[in-house]
Amino acid sequence: MATEGEYAPAFALSDDSGNTVRLSDLRGRRVVLFFYPRDDTPGCTTEACGFRDDYATLSGAGAIVLGISPQDVASHRTFKEKYALPFPLLVDEDHRVAEAYGVWEQKLSQGQVRWGNQRTTFVIAEDGRIARVFRKVSPAGHSREILDVLLA
């Protein structure tokens, strides 16, 4: 499980346009990496749209915002276009990155056990270390919590 103070696990993943995003390429910038369960579901839409609405302020604070979930490029592209999301959505179909960050978990939904991302956000500092971890976040207003950290 990735914790505050340690280096963020490296990754190279495709985004919603099929481009490869490497965490190592973002060294020197603050990164807001939010793991979410599924494209275009109520909680995930609320969370993503919060980041969209606060995107200019987040960017102004020097942060790069990246969303990550296990859906494919086409699903991410549709979700991004539907809600005019201005940041990349990364594809983690084999959930290796979610596992590296410790957010891939077993869930009980409608009496069925399944696996998925725990809604978690990591704020990664310019040096590549994890500055803050927000686990089991509430989607509404979460981007404001992140802004409070970035602007502190």
Q: What's the topology here?
A:
Elements: E1 12-14, E2 20-22, E3 30-35, H1 42-53, H2 55-60, E4 63-69, H3 73-83, E5 89-91, H4 96-101, E6 104-109, E7 112-117, E8 120-124, E9 130-135, H5 142-151
Parallel strand pairs: 3-4, 4-5
Antiparallel strand pairs: 1-2, 3-8, 6-7, 8-9
Main sheet record? 5 strands, mixed
CATH fold-type name: Glutaredoxin
Global geometry: globular
pLDDT below 50 for ≥5 consecutive residues: which ranges? none
Count of strand segments: 9
In short:
This protein is an alpha/beta fold and 152 residues long. 30% of the residues lie in helices and 30% in strands.
How would you sum up this structure, described in words?
The chain is α/β, with parallel strands linked by helices. The protein has a single domain (12-151), classed as Glutaredoxin. The protein is 30% helix and 30% strand. A five-stranded mixed beta sheet has the order 5-4-3-8-9. It starts with 11 loop residues before the first strand and ends with a helix. The relative contact order is 0.25.
